[in-house]
Amino acid sequence: MERQSNFELLRIIAMFLVLAVHANYFALDGGPSAQECATRVIPSMTRIVLESACIVCVDVFVLISGWFGIHFKWKSLLSFLFQVFFFGLLIYAFCVIFLDVPLNIKGIAACFQITTWNWFVKSYLLLYLMSPILNAFCDQSDKKAFLLVLISFFSFQTIYGLTGSAKFIEQGYSTISFIGLYLLAQYIRKFATFFSEKSILFHCIGYFLCVAMLSILEFISRFTNHPTGQIFSYINPIVILASVFLLLLFSKLLFTNRFVNWVASSCFAVFLLHTNVNLCEPVFVKKIVALYSLHEGFTCLFLICCFLCSVYLLAILIDQFRKVIYLLLTKYFN
Fold first, then answer.
1. If DSSP codes are grouped into helix, strand and coil, which group holds residue 163?
2. Domain definitions of the chain by residue range
3. What is the separation of C-alpha 126 from the centre of its chain, rounded to a whole number of angstroms?
4. pTM, entire model
5. How many whole angstroms separate alpha carbon 6 and alpha carbon 70?
6. DSSP per residue over 299-318, as a string?
7. N or C: which end of the chain has fewer CB within 10 A?
8. Nearest Cα to 307, choosing from 322, 291, 319?
9. Distance CA 35, CA 86 (A)
């Protein structure tokens, strides 16, 4: 069955938003200071609005999985793991040869995700492994029971997660939060026809209202010198709501395009490339900081966008090599 290109396009966009988030607050040591908000209002507000618009990236990615449901297959699991290990080993070998990165046990362990670095891969892997249980719950629960579970879950997550009193939630950087998003997407598609039947304009306005709320809250917190990580937390209800609006917006854009599907099949490679422990801070972050330091205004924004697009393109091209190798291996072992 051919994938729905509207959701594949959203997947592509979500991955670019990941790049944008990592090129903003992550690379530049957080948001603008109180002094910057007072003296450089437009640049500061630009960074805040961009972060507000892009912070939905991870939640959207997981919501897409929940919308269609993860159907556990050993072949799919092996393909996912092969992609992760392929990029880990290839990048590590490149860095050892050309960037003087030492060859040691710690470096090899990082190739197989056996470090504290890169939380997403392990969180999503556990979600994949738990998907049969989650799917069984979704199939067997009626609307009332399903809704009660969601209300209970998100109430708990919001109260104890945002306050930091439940460390295992990790502000959304965890499988626990992914499970909530997965179930939420399943519920919306199965029962919440009121939202899914709304127009594209409705969802578009909803998304931009959420972005506006996040931007205002973040600017006030920065301007008053009381910044808080909770505003741009993946478990912030406003962030989750914005992600849902974006998901439902794209659910209305029904079309099929082979090129879009082809790009989307490799978009996770973008994440694996630029977040690699040997490239992220030494190369990706360093380049973003250099561009931000040397340029201002539209020129800075344009050059950073060009750099992010080049990273995206490079990852897609490298992944074609991975696909060929995986195909040859599957043919050999079959």
1. coil
2. 5-333
3. 16
4. 0.95
5. 18
6. HHHHHHHHHHHHHHHHHHHH
7. N
8. 291
9. 45
